[in-house]
């Protein structure tokens, strides 16, 4: 039993978010290197040598250089068992990021020191705030010219609305980058520049206190003076470190470093693991579910088809919320109302999979999905039934009418469109009383249209024609007894159904929403749908 407790206690499950190119992939790889999960040193990802990061496995991601879907990685480090959830960097996929954050207990936000807070950091961060979890900041690329660190802190606080607590502080930047000062340990970790061995940058570090007489010699008198002034200012003016504020995402511990040159990554990992919580309790229909409770429970936060084109399979990703999972155990799929055996449970390392025998609260497992799971579904033990709170569906903001160009490919078109919609990558609708001849596709960000078209072509061999529609708003009709004939709407407003036959309205603007409400006072409209 104590083994079981300590297995859960040593779990740390977090998501990494960033604007594309801030260095999320590079940082993730350095983490994996420390954990011995990958053997390759140096820049694994490089356009020049055409190697791609382990987490960027999808073809479209490689082509566009952005992460479209999230992947999951697990490794051990210093007694901790770490689950990293990689998230799409592009704001058009912020719904996927949100679902991934549902599975995480904390988040790491990577910021480019030269660029500061970027548009997609803002949108992803807002999504992050919807969850009451700790948010850590890694200010990356200090080996390049960077913005003034005080300005960066101010920008994070003002634009993202979170207070900051710099755990370490940079000394210079770019060619003049000398290292960081650790405010807790009150010592300098010195950056001694690039080694040139085999073209791979190398870094040495020397630990030195602020009072050490050799400091001026080592970093130069000007840097020494600036550092002393900065630290005095910080100690006097910055927020106090308050773990309770950190736990609720109101104060973000900030670390400076350079993922590429491997500087500051290990100290960050160590402090981060100390501060980030073990698996958190989760709300359910029967109250809070404690992770240490001995009955297994989990929820589905992601579904991905065709991860491996050769196998044409579909994997449901589950976050274990309590107890221990053992291979072959019989569980209850609440939404399906059936007892099932989770077959081929896998732990994933991007494309590589490993069949596992057991997993604990905090872990993410992927199970083969014969088409029964939906996002947000609960898996629990048959003798204790409950449902976790669902994952809300974001209302799409862009719509297109979609047809297949070759009518003979209808079967593949229907299958591909349905599967991609079940993954939550798009939402699909149809006009009342029609089938799948023509589908209206709704997305949160327009890049999702491209991904949809690309995947239909590559995975299902279907070409489509998309015609953009001018609707911008969608509302679910919540009336239990709804008769479309009673509805009085403008010609700009469209009544559609989703594939569970729920009715919805598409609007071109807010004026039409108001009109519909005024003319149909009995109409109950909702902005979020339940998955
Ligand atoms: P992302 O996942 O957030 O999109 O970023 P990624 O790690 O792919 O990094 C984007 C670019 O920034 C890469 O260069 C990477 O090598 C570089 N980079 C990451 N961390 C650092 C750092 O600490 N210092 C410096 N100087 N550069 C860093 P690239 O040229 O766009 O790609 P590649 O050719 O190296 O693959």
TrEMBL record:
Domain of life: Bacteria
Compartments where located: Cytoplasm
Domain Tr-type G: residue ranges: 9-280
Principal subcellular localization: cytoplasm
MF annotations from Gene Ontology: GTP binding; GTPase activity; translation release factor activity, codon nonspecific; translation release factor activity, codon specific
InterPro entries given in the database record: EF-G-like_DII, EFG_III/V, G_TR_CS, P-loop_NTPase, PrfC, RF3_C, RF3_dom_3_sf, RF3_GTP-bd
GO CC, any one term: cytosol
Keywords: Cytoplasm, GTP-binding, Nucleotide-binding, Protein biosynthesis
GO annotation, biological process: regulation of translational termination
Signal sequence bounds: none
A Pfam family per the record: GTP_EFTU
Binding site for GTP: 18-25, 86-90, 140-143
Gene3D superfamilies the UniProt entry points to: P-loop containing nucleotide triphosphate hydrolases (3.40.50.300), Peptide chain release factor 3, domain III (3.30.70.3280), Translation factors (2.40.30.10)
Cited function: Increases the formation of ribosomal termination complexes and stimulates activities of RF-1 and RF-2. It binds guanine nucleotides and has strong preference for UGA stop codons. It may interact directly with the ribosome. The stimulation of RF-1 and RF-2 is significantly reduced by GTP and GDP, but not by GMP.
Family affiliation: Belongs to the TRAFAC class translation factor GTPase superfamily. Classic translation factor GTPase family. PrfC subfamily.
The name this protein goes by in its record: Peptide chain release factor 3
Source organism: Anaerotruncus colihominis DSM 17241
Protein encoded by which gene: prfC
